[in-house]
Amino acid sequence: DIWLRPEGGQLFTGSITEGTPGDPILPNERVFGAELGEDPEFPFAATEPGFQSLPGRDTANGIFSFAIPGPLLRWTGTQFVASDSIMTLVFGPASVESADGPVQGFSFATQPSGLLHDHFDFTLKGQGKSDPSVGVYALPISFEGVTPVYLASPTAWIVFNLGEDEVVHDDAIRHAELYLACGIDRTGDGTVNAKDLAVVLGAWGTNESVGDVNEDGVVDGTDLAIVLGAWGFTCE
Question: How far is residue 166's CA from residue 60's CA, in Å, rounded to a whole number?
Fold first, then answer.
């Protein structure tokens, strides 16, 4: 599930296990994998991931809202491009669908304790609301606090798989982590440059996560090649 976590007046997304409440896994996570069509009666739909917040003063009697900052994307095998399909999000009587540009979503509330564990219905629709094509799709989503007021989270991405091989899905998730969520920018200054190269070289031959760009357990030439291949890339 996606953990909605307030800190310093802003919301952040992390990962958390299922459960009420779940157990936090990572406090800062921006890419989440999901499967469409696991229920044969709803071949283009999913109810995962869910959204959780933990009990506490910062979330007590809270109201969150979300936005879809841009279009649904489709994985080509090498990159994400804008898709002709749309994603519909439904929770009770509220619904919204993705579009070519930003879309404001709807609000949802925590319990008085601050506990939240909600699951939206996600449904993929093809062009003209026809059946969608097999593939991997990435939905951008950001969250903000209405009560209390929290600034919007950095954009998170839900990478949905519709009938594609899991190897392809995993490749798309990793690409999203590096480029959509900007994990390729190791220093967080917004651009892949000499500072990021210095981070990789400084951790060379170790298993330090800061330099392990491809997360294979060692900082080596593969990590160097990824950084050099993305040289000048600017995070959105």
Answer: 39
Which tens digit of pLDDT belongs to each residue from 48-66? Answer: 999 999 999 999 999 999 9
Two tokens, residue 45: 């739909």
List Cα–Cα distances, 177 to 38, 80, 157, 196, 227, in angstroms.
24, 12, 9, 16, 14
Instruction: Kindly indicate the confidence band of residue 72, based on its pLDDT and cuts at 50, 70 and 90.
Output: very high
**Paired tokens of 2:** 């996606």
Rounded-to-integer distance, Cα 135 and Cα 123, Å: 14
Within the chain, residue ranges assigned H as helices are 166-175, 194-202, 221-229
114: how many CB neighbours lie within 10 A of its CB? 18
Q: Report the SS3 class of residue 117.
A: strand
Rounded-to-integer distance, Cα 70 and Cα 67, Å? 9
H or E element, residue 65: strand 63-68
pLDDT higher than threshold 80 for residue 101: yes
Largest CA distance in the chain: 54
Instruction: Give 145-154 pLDDT, tens digit per residue.
Output: 999 999 999 9
Average pLDDT for 118-129: 94
- Strand pairing report for 156-162 and 31-35: parallel
